[in-house]
């Protein structure tokens, strides 16, 4: 937590080279000061992120029963369910949720953080667009990070347990008799791609199996999912995009492909079908996220992992409420995901 | 506006059959009352949606600089950009946004409305999941309805101009030489399906053209988009799902299909390709919404209409801010959409 690092009026005074009482006058707009002095103080306060509201520094004394939901996401794909889950739990606790969306703009985020502090929120939940760790915010009230954890191990964060999700998938695939499993990730540098890969390799290893071929990384698009199928299986027989004649021959040494997202897996299913391969009879396919727009529309519908993002938002709200009531948590809590089994692994038999 | 219909303490007293002072005692939990009386008053207050906060009825005197964003949506597909746009404009106006999501649950919505009133928000923006008109909320502060208009013509609503969007599409298709245009809608009873159909027919009629075949309605899924292609063109030649041999023959009397959403159009493109028809050379395709997950992932990418939902949210916030400052608007404002041209209509030549 950054509770010790609140900016004080004396810090602003030091930076502006004036007395603390001058800072107060300058920011409250009273007293007779030169405009240049006033401007210098305002600039110093702005630079330090100082919140000119005395009551914001004595929060423990009283509560606003309002919590800030700070989201860095614009698309909302992942953060929206987290925000909804948090809002749901907050309402249950008779708290209101102030929404603040920063859209990956640090200046906007700073502005929002200051506005939330000035509003004297009891605490803040910070959500992100990916599970990449992020810099903590500096505020004088409890904060819980949801989905994107804080880089500070002393902060409280709730994240989806990706390793557990991948274990569920491997258990399921191996139970269904699959042994030659390939992996297609999204962006190579992202935790969502890497944790899923590492867990897959470890789980296969513990069963005396190994990954079929090298892991493949690209981006998070359906297009990459389609292209990756050709890289996993080798060029399609005959003309590009045409149906293969020989049935199972096209799948080579692979009987399952684990994709790191539903979007990838959906593109993969499309490409496998175009190559004349039957999913899952010849190649089983798994996704990740249970984003229903993808997982249900896929042909066939996808076996995938539901990260339980609403539950994750609820849990973040519970941790925040506990912290507000004097019971702060520390460290990263990993929330168990849920396996969702559909036709892409079930087979006809 | 429902400003005249605020529930007063006397209304609660009348329904409960007690004196107004008894209502006050019962709801504030003081005075000596029988528990049955207290329960009867609480029930009456609950039924009428009475807000037991005197200051909520004298809002004009002071402002909280907080606005409620009430969303009935859980998926967030349409309401999320509206909420983001509104939040953006509110922040610019130095207002904070209290988020309240009701998820199509009237009880939850009632609870949220009461909580927002108790919080003394300066105004409320109500967003919906569809453009179907909705019942107004009854609160003692300004309200603007965004995306889903209020059924009360005296309320202020901002909605996307679907007729204008369809005119843009027809202009574009006719310019590209298309004359035999079919229509595939979503759910038959919804404004989004019907307004788009009616405008399409009227626009074609004004050019001496008519719709190719009857309009088709189903749901909003890709699956329906695929199936609708077979209904428009007749059963595929040869085995189901096989490639047609004769090129253009398969398209029959249709040279364009207007789908009422990107999801439908994406399914349509998939099915046209499976039937061996080239999009747009043989059949041009248009979508609606510019939901990029669909419109960009479609093969080929979709020509579509962007309803400008963020702009719509911003506009709702502007109208609300004006109303809070004493300049309320009345009636439905239609926001002009934007044509987005991509490969599904452009052709190769």
Strand proportion of chain A, as a percent range, falls in: 5-15%
For the record, the count of structural domains of chain A works out to 3
Write down how many β-strands of chain A occur, each being a DSSP E stretch of 2 or more residues.
11
Query: Widest sheet of chain A: strand order?
Result: 2-1-3-4-5-10
The biggest sheet of chain A amounts to:
6 strands, parallel
- CATH C-level class of the largest domain in chain A is Alpha Beta
Query: What is the CA-based Rg of chain A, rounded?
Result: 25 Å
Greatest interface and its residue counts?
A-B, 28 and 28 residues
CATH topology of the largest domain in chain A: Rossmann fold
Tell me the number of helical segments of chain A per DSSP (H or I, 4 or more residues long).
Answer: 12
Oligomer: homodimer
End-to-end separation of chain A in angstroms reads: 54 Å
The poorly predicted ranges of chain A are 54-61, 238-249
* Structural shape of chain A: elongated
Order of helices and strands of chain A: HHHEHEHEEEHEHHEHEHEHEEH
GO molecular function, one term (chains A, B): DNA binding
InterPro entries (chains A, B): HTH_LacI, LacI/GalR-like_sensor, Lambda_DNA-bd_dom_sf, Peripla_BP_I
Pfam families (chains A, B): LacI, Peripla_BP_3
Domain HTH lacI-type (chains A, B): 7-61
């Amino acid at each position: 937590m950054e509770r010790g690092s609140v900016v004080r009026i004396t810090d602003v005074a030091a930076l502006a080279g004036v007395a603390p009482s001058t800072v107060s006058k300058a920011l409250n707009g009273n007293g007779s000061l030169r405009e240049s002095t006033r401007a210098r103080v305002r600039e110093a306060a702005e630079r330090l992120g100082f919140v000119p509201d005395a009551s914001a520094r004595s929060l423990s004394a009283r509560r606003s029963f309002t919590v800030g939901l700070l989201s860095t996401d614009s698309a909302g794909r992942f953060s929206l369910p987290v925000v909804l889950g948090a809002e749901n739990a907050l309402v249950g606790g008779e708290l209101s949720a102030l929404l603040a969306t920063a859209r990956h703009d640090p200046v906007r985020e700073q502005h929002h953080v200051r506005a939330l502090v000035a509003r004297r929120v009891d605490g803040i939940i910070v959500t992100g667009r990916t599970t990449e760790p992020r810099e903590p915010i500096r505020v004088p009230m409890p904060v819980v990070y949801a989905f994107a954890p804080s880089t500070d191990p002393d902060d409280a964060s709730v994240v989806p347990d990706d390793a557990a999700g991948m274990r569920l998938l491997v258990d399921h695939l191996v139970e269904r008799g699959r042994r030659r499993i390939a992996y297609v990730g999204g962006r190579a540098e992202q935790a969502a791609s890497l944790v899923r890969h590492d867990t897959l390799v470890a789980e296969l290893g513990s069963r005396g199996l190994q990954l079929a071929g090298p892991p493949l990384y690209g981006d998070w698009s359906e297009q990459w999912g389609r292209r990756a199928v050709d890289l996993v299986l080798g060029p399609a027989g005959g003309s590009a995009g045409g149906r293969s004649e020989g049935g199972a021959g096209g799948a080579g040494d692979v009987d399952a492909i684990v994709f790191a997202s539903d979007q990838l897996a959906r593109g993969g299913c499309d490409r496998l079908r175009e190559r004349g391969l039957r999913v899952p009879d010849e190649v089983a396919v798994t996704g990740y996220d249970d984003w229903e727009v993808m997982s249900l529309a896929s042909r066939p519908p996808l076996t995938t992992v539901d990260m339980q993002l609403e539950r994750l938002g609820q849990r973040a709200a519970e941790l925040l409420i506990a912290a507000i009531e004097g019971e702060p948590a520390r460290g990263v809590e990993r929330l168990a995901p849920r396996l969702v089994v559909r036709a892409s692994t079930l087979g006809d038999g």
